[in-house]
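Figure S7 source data.
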Amino acid sequence: MEEVKVIARSLMEFLDKSPVNFLAVKTVASQLDDAGFVRLDPRESWELRPGGKYYITKNSSAIFAFVISTEGPASGFRIISAHSDSPCLRVKPKAEMISDGGIVKLNVEVYGGPILYTWFDRPLSLAGRVVLRSDDPLNPRTEIVRFDRPLLTIPHLAIHFNRAVNEGNPLSKQKDMLPVIAIVRDAAEKDNMLLRCVAEAVGCKMEDILDFDLSLFDTTPACLVGLDEEFLTSGRLDDLSMVHGAMTALLETSSTKQTRVMAIFDNEETGSGTKQGAASPVLMQLLRRVVACLGGSDEDYLRSIDKSFMISADNAHAYHPNYPEKYDPTNHPVVGGGPVIKINANCKYMTDAESAAVFKSICEKAGVPCQYFVNHSDVAGGSTLGNILTSQIDLRGVDMGEAIWAMHSVRETMATRDHAYTIRAFKTFFDL
Ligand code: ZN
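Tokens for the predicted zinc ion complex:
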């Protein structure tokens, strides 16, 4: 039990440090730095050595770390992929809007597919990236920013104005979801209010802020719940629990038979179609470059890919005790039942019988249970990283995740012990 709690604490700390994609990548990078990984600049030429530990970031919101094999450039890759982003509300440019009483609210848009009404009446704050003027217009400076104290809330309409609220309440993304941030005496005070706050937080002049990517997050920290702390509840379990699992496994294993890779993409929640997303060539080009830097040929790269295996790690829907009718009658993973293999007849997932068998054997060797997720045949399921990546690299691999409740709620729930199971499986995979 102790191992389970220690791992849960480590996950909760990671989640609290990572309120948005940019902060998640910053948190991962600082842990890699502490573990002696060398940060590479994609614009420089690389000198890689067998056994060396390296990482790159892309757009400050995706991160790729790898430990080089000592068995030559054609030895293959063992990859665990996950994503840094979660559904949220994103601040629009010129966001401040004033209403009666000097109430300032912010104009926001929806990122990905959040369960909108879970965002009401919570202590929210802001985090993300600020882009600052530099001497070179083509290369502005980027600062990562996070406000620690609650700055905003989205007050729900009182039930007295909508007695039918509990019978289903359609929401307008533009009207209902705008958070309040301040009360001002003079309407002019609202002008540039957000930029002033950001400049103060970053320690720069307001005029130097050229643009920003700021998102809202719930400031409530992750915590354990349940009579025996069986459950872990937090924002962004999808997919930061898998990011944490992949990172922990990479840091706590030492095999150099194949190059071990952790690939954390951004923008999975909007379809992966950005330069830092899984549909881009970013991972393929990185792997080619690694082979080339080790003196390998194009053929060595292709041989390497053929020997490789990827675990595409993105969380799965756990069987919800209140809604048994939503799930497949014979394949519904439960919280606490171990890692979940996701499989779909129409190939929405990269899993097939052969790759599922590989993952099952890994779990067996790790001594952890594993289970299957298959959609109820009348319910259309989601997709994830694996099958998108295979359009760039013809990798073997499995789609899997941890079983969670309330996927895309501002706060999701999983079983505390599942994370220890997953990490044991990931470490076994890297160390095989
Ligand atoms: Zn996900």
